[in-house]
Design brief:
127 residues; mainly alpha; two-stranded antiparallel ribbon; 2 strands; 2 domains
């Protein structure tokens, strides 16, 4: 198999040279399916995350997707957290495993963290 750059209108693109069109199509389809499957995979349970958030976080944060404020004025709502620009599940995982000076020393790990992350990300508004 050989790779090369094809010049076309716009920018160069990588192409597979010396392969039958059907083989190129199958390779491209497998790459696309793998990439889209990884993006669509959700780790954690939204329902379990909401349950845990209500039990553990609701003392300070507004965790439900309703209009209102957190009980602690310094604690953002979960909806506000979810809609933070650039927020990722990795950033949430790091935040849940790190204590904060303005927050009680609550550290959420393992499946519980995955569930809370899934719940928070479910609150994100569509772009």
């Amino acid at each position: 198999m050989c790779y090369g750059l094809a010049k076309s209108v716009g920018r160069p693109r990588l192409v597979l040279i010396g392969m039958a069109p059907m083989v190129r199509f199958m390779i491209a389809a497998m790459i696309w399916a793998t990439a889209s499957g990884a993006q669509a995979a959700q780790v954690g349970s939204v329902q379990q995350g909401l349950r845990l958030a209500r039990e553990t976080c609701a003392q300070c944060h507004l965790v439900d997707k309703v209009t209102g404020r957190s009980t602690d004025a310094n604690a953002p709502t979960f909806e506000a957290i979810a809609n933070t620009p650039g927020l990722t599940s990795a950033a949430l995982a790091a935040a849940l495993q790190t204590s904060h000076r303005t927050m009680p020393n609550v550290v959420i790990k393992g499946d519980d963290a995955d569930n809370v992350i899934a719940y928070i990300l479910s609150l994100k508004e569509a772009d």
